[in-house]
Amino acid sequence: MIGTHHPVPTAPKPAAASHHPVIGGIADPAALGLGAFGMSTALLSFGNAGIVPTAATAVLGLGLFYGGIAQLIAGIWEFVQANTFGALAFVSYGSFWLAYWWTITNPDIVKEAGGAGMGTFLMLWAVFTTFMIVPCTRISNLLTALFTAAAITFILLAIAEYTSSEILSRIAGYIGLVVGALGLYGCFASVVNATWRRSIIPLGSRNT
């Protein structure tokens, strides 16, 4: 009823980082970011693993709009929530998907870069993902497992580009499916816990 003041419920703490203050009235952006990260990674990995070869092409639209733009939006709102980890992760991986989309849709760039160039591109992302594991160990078991699997995936994909190894690319695809599944699980847990306003789906949060 207009003019009636109702108490604003306390917003649930973002699942991706339980140690920072939460601004009331702003939804948890972790659910969106993890969903975008997980689904895009899973679809690409179906292609890399050779399970659905055409998935590597089908991922381009999803990677641009969901993996890229949606993750950027989630990361920007993590800045507002004072969550340094979430902001860095979502903006960075959103940018990765935008860069991936732009590169793959410009085949002349891929050809000119060659295996060495693309391998180095992926190896730098492997380095970034690896050092992001360190803060993950402070946040939750889920993120620790997700970033560890993601780092291994990037390393294998980089070596596959350097060596033109289809076998390594396939292995990376299967590990990437694990990464995608963990991301989607985190999305599911975040939205369920936020809706029920209590921890129902475990994330292995570390509050020490």
State the separation between the terminal residues, measured CA to CA.
Answer: 43 Å
Poorly predicted segments? 1-18
Summarize the helix and strand pattern as letters. Answer: HHHHHH
Number of structurally distinct domains: 1
- Main pleated sheet: none
Helix content: over 70%
Radius of gyration, rounded?
18 Å
What kind of assembly state do the chains in view correspond to?
single chain
Would you report the number of β strands? 0
What's the rounded overall pLDDT mean? 90
Overall 3D shape: globular
Category from helices, strands and their pairing? mainly alpha
Distinct helical segment count: 6
The proportion of strand residues reads under 5%
Subcellular location: Membrane
Membrane topology: Multi-pass membrane protein
Family: Belongs to the acetate uptake transporter (AceTr) (TC 2.A.96) family.
Keywords: Membrane, Transmembrane, Transmembrane helix
